[in-house]
Amino acid sequence: PLLPDGRVDPAVRRGASVRVPGLAPGAYRAAVWDTQAGALLGDAAVLTEVGGLRLEVPAFVVAVAVAVRAA
Fold it and tell me: What secondary structure letter does DSSP report for 71?
């Protein structure tokens, strides 16, 4: 869940997902980075769904960044 200011509630650090709307149908690669540690948490091949891309985010401590590129 999100806090009123849009940040992820720090009590919830696993089971989060990200939705990226507006991507063309097809295959993509998604990389998830732990921004505090500067470490790659995961890199996976993903497919778009109706309405965009939905990506499960691995457990994290403070924040993550997600990079999505065409496969």
Answer: -
